[in-house]
Q: What sequence folds into this?
């Protein structure tokens, strides 16, 4: 699709919005219900498409992460929509409120929201924000990833059947189409993906002063205190790290474990993986890396770390040979004793590789986190509430999960977003509704019978104007 075609769709959506005005409560509910129905009625087709795109992607995982995780967000928005749409009363300045002045904030739709979604959770990361976008009364133009070709084509087919083009339009294509997409005069642009691409997205949006929400990633740390339960921590960390083979923006990127717990944690990690996946190579529950490019990148990270002195500890319960395989699977791999000159400690891993660092004083972990870009997520395992508060208050991240990983993104009443290099803006719940709305300030002045009271601040000025101003303030 070329620039003219994309522009034509955007013009069509804008004209529709101007003609019809903000959608009613009932229409917003209807749009969310149609989205829910298309997901649930076609869930097996979506899961099959995901498996085809990845080569091997756990169908059970896909059903959990790219189908059923979307539904709570839709239902939560539906349940709270009337309250969100009602806006909020505010207090006019004294003494105007006593004389009948009124103030309120009304949340109005922005119009058309452009949405660029990624390949790692292509269904969830399209329809989850779409619930907030629809709740706020907007229309959507969606550019899904070309990496998940079958899933993107299926989403377009389903959305084209369920929605008019003025409501939800899907634009397929590669990087050239993506670049053209970002140049449009949307009323808001949501991008989920890498920080490197986000710089180009933001630059293109800036040309048209289009506000952006960026959901990025980064190196989300795990801190395992000497007060943590090692088996529980290991099980939860490795579940999060092996889900989607670590191809998650919030995946644990590296672990900092107290020296007293290191051996115990590593042993429990190996046990956890063996329990999850007794074998890996032909196990449909263990997901493949998305393509050759990303597979080679991960292998290069391992080679670089090994060449610079790291100990590579592959967790391969059935001792399988991965040198020849139909997919691009990489076993969960621990990288022991990593140093900052290793590439694996300099870029987001986005795969099943997990560096393990040791510490003896909790302030070492705080210093390390603060010396690097603010992460999308931070994870703390421990039972010392004082230490927990110390870590959380002295570090900055988009979100935090305590004694687990990934958990905060699953909470519909919590905002999800990054900070600094891990993103800007947030959605989920009420924050999502507000992100995709214009908070319009509305003030109604006092009636005409009190108009003489305003004469003291109008020309021609008489007497001491400062005296009047002091009384008013």
A:
């Amino acid at each position: 699709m070329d620039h003219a075609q994309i522009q034509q769709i955007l013009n069509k959506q804008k004209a529709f919005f101007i003609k019809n005005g903000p959608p009613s409560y009932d229409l917003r509910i209807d749009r969310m219900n149609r989205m829910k129905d298309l997901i649930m009625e076609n869930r097996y087709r979506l899961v099959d498409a995901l498996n085809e795109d990845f080569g091997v992607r756990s169908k059970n995982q896909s059903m959990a992460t790219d189908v059923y995780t979307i539904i709570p967000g839709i239902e939560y928005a539906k349940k709270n929509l009337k309250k969100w749409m009602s806006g909020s009363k505010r207090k006019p300045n004294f003494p105007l409120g006593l004389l009948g002045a009124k103030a309120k904030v009304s949340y109005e739709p922005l119009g058309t929201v452009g949405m660029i979604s990624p390949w790692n959770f292509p269904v969830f990361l399209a329809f989850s924000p779409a619930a907030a976008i629809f709740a706020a009364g907007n229309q959507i133009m969606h550019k899904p990833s070309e990496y998940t070709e079958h899933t993107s084509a299926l989403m377009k087919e389903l959305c084209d059947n369920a929605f008019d083009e003025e409501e939800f339009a899907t634009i397929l294509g590669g990087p050239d189409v993506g670049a053209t997409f970002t140049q449009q005069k949307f009323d808001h642009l949501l991008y989920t993906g890498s920080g490197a691409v986000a710089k180009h997205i933001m630059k293109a949006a800036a040309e048209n002063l289009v506000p952006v929400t960026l959901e990025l990633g980064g190196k989300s740390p795990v801190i395992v205190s000497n007060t943590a339960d090692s088996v529980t921590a290991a099980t939860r960390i490795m579940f999060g790290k092996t889900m989607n083979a670590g191809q998650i923006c919030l995946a644990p990127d590296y672990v900092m474990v107290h020296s007293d717990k290191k051996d115990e944690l590593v042993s429990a990690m190996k046990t956890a993986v063996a329990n999850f996946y007794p074998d890996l190579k032909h196990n449909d529950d263990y997901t493949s890396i998305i393509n050759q490019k990303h597979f080679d990148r991960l292998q290069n990270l391992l080679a670089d770390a090994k060449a610079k002195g790291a100990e590579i500890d592959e967790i391969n319960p059935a001792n399988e040979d991965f040198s020849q395989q139909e997919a691009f699977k990489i076993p969960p791999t621990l990288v022991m004793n990593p140093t900052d000159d290793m590439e694996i400690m300099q870029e987001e891993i986005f795969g099943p590789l997990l560096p393990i660092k040791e510490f003896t004083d909790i302030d070492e972990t705080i210093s390390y986190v603060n010396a690097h870009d603010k992460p999308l997520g931070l994870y703390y395992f421990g039972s010392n509430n004082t230490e927990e508060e110390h870590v959380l208050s002295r570090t900055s991240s988009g979100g935090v999960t305590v004694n687990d990983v990934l958990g905060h993104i699953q909470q519909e009443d919590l905002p999800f977003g990054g900070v600094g290099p891990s993103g800007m803006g947030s959605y989920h719940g009420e924050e999502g509704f507000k992100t995709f709305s214009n908070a319009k300030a509305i003030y109604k002045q006092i009636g005409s019978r009190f108009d003489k009271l305003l004469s003291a601040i109008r020309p021609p000025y008489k007497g001491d104007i400062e005296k009047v101003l002091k009384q008013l303030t």
About this structure: The chain has two domains: 3-216+425-438, 220-417. The domain at 220-417 is CATH 3.40.309.10 (Aldehyde Dehydrogenase; Chain A, domain 2).
